[in-house]
Design goal:
By secondary structure, the protein is mainly α. It contains ten helices and no strands. Helix 2 packs across helix 4 and helix 9 packs antiparallel against helix 10.
Length: about 250
């Protein structure tokens, strides 16, 4: 079995190949960015139960057309998530050390805007549970303090960029600071950190949801992050491979 170190080394080699090809042609960059923004929106929402297909997500986001038989919420989740991706692309110009708690709240606010405006960008004040999970999340009174500690860690975290991004994701969902939208916000934060280090968006496939959720649970129970890291590394490698293939196909 491939170790985490071996997997990270493999990613480093692919990242070096991609960096050597940069700057990529603007048209290719735009096409890839648009494609993966739609796929990321589709998969991240699908993990949370949204039933829009990827093609339907594209129609809603790019054309503004409603899909028959789908709820208003599902449409808004697609639109808001796509807006949140644009937002983190802008935030990626910041250094990791300059990220602030307000940035996390702003991401969450975009994710839930028009869906649940009362709770958008606001820490929860109630206990929460995840369906099917035995995990008891922190008391809401502790959430603001836990998030301050989280930001202190995030601003100074020094490890492989993929490990830091994965850990940020894991730590945020473990605090579960919001009433809703924790998973989507955590995956957006993870991708913000990856973008800051020149990686394309990492996409956790819908089909990986059972393993992804189980890996989070295992990490909570045992503090063994191996399976979770493997899933995130696979997500990073998926888009790296796609960028390298697209560059090859375009004659680079």
């Amino acid at each position: 079995m491939v170790t985490i170190t071996q997997a990270l080394n493999r990613i480093d080699e692919k990242k070096k190949k991609l960096d050597a090809l940069r700057p990529l042609p603007p048209a290719l960059v735009n096409n890839l960015a648009e494609w993966f923004a739609i796929e990321f929106t589709y998969t991240s929402n699908a993990i949370e139960g949204n039933t829009l297909s990827m093609s339907e997500t594209a129609i809603v986001v790019e054309k503004g057309i409603t899909i028959g038989g789908k709820t208003v919420r599902e449409h808004l989740e697609a639109i808001c998530h796509a807006e949140a991706i644009n937002f983190i692309r802008g935030l990626a110009q910041k250094k990791q050390s300059d990220l602030a708690l307000d940035d996390i709240l702003a991401i969450h606010k975009i994710v839930l805007q028009k869906i649940d405006d009362i709770h958008a960008g606001v820490f929860r004040d109630v206990m929460v549970r995840v369906m099917g999970s035995p995990t008891v999340f922190p008391n809401p009174v502790k959430v603001p303090f836990l998030m301050v500690d989280f930001m202190t860690w995030l601003q100074t975290a020094a490890d492989h960029p993929v490990i830091v991004a994965a850990l940020a994701h894991y730590k945020l969902v473990t605090i579960h600071p919001f009433v809703d939208g924790n998973g989507r916000t955590a995956r957006l934060l993870m991708n913000l950190l990856l973008l800051q280090h020149g990686y394309p968006l990492a996409i956790i496939k819908k089909e990986k949801r059972p393993e992804y959720m189980a890996a989070i649970e295992q990490a909570r129970k045992t503090e063994d992050m191996t399976e979770f890291y493997q899933i995130i590394i696979e997500a990073v490698e998926y888009t790296l491979d796609a960028y390298l293939q697209a560059a090859h196909d375009s004659g680079l």
